[in-house]
Amino acid sequence: MYRSKPKERVIKFASAGDDSERVLAPMLRWAGSKRQHVSFLRQCWGEGDYLRYVEPFAGSAAAFFAIAPENALLGDINRELIQMYRAVCRSPRAVSQCLREFPKGENAYYTIRAMKPKLAVTKAARFIYLNRFCFNGLYRTNVDGKFNVPYGAPKTLNIPDISQFRASARLLRRANLIDGDFRVLLANVRAGDFVYLDPPYASSRRRVFIQYAKGHFSTKDLSDLAAWLTNIDRRGAAFVLSYADSQDARSAFRGWKTRRFAVRRNVAGFSNARRNHYELFLSNLDTF
Length: 288
Prior knowledge:
- The chain is built from ten helices and eight strands.
- By secondary structure, the protein is α/β, with parallel strands linked by helices.
- The chain has a single domain (8-153, 162-283), classed as 3-Layer(aba) Sandwich (Rossmann fold).
- The radius of gyration is 19 Å and the shape is globular.
């Protein structure tokens, strides 16, 4: 339905700050976040009359918060992440208050990291706290599934305020939130959907530092994801997929229209090691 002759363009990416319209910033820092890509993704969304926004690798959901769709399906294999969104959706004020009551600083960080809260509100506040004050906004667990990212001294001690929690909750109430593998969510795609896929980067040549310990996305999943792109297209839905430009990606996702974006990121999370690299965007959109 949306597919046309493959082509590729190389462009420089405008930052989200170049967008003339204000967008809601995500509550989380997230390694590999597509905040730089928000303007372009909003443009892709705006070029169609879509019934629903679908994102199976939600992460910080930067594109979702920026696009602000009326109807959405969000998913992630990270169950704690989805549980946090559910808690914010139901009780934004309570999560915000709990978060503000947590002490700050390196010693406090490790104390809170060792917590095992039972209440959904406290779990959500802890998740956001650790995300804001951990090294480079990473999410990584050990073999027992315990979050093990070290403290990273932030440039600012700011945390989302109550107005951001309330605005985020209003948007999240428009979404069906699913914790599970991307295949579970994509099985629900239907005609008229706009699907944005931003899987974690996986390399066949080295272990990636941000990989989850259990069930993380790997190069073995690329062929399955490639098959799902064809499935999405056949269902009459549109998709945009972003991935680090690599031999693995070009081999797995051949046949779709592509754009190559120059982006600037920290290498290993250190600001003095910034480098340009390229990301590959693929789509079945006629206007891509």
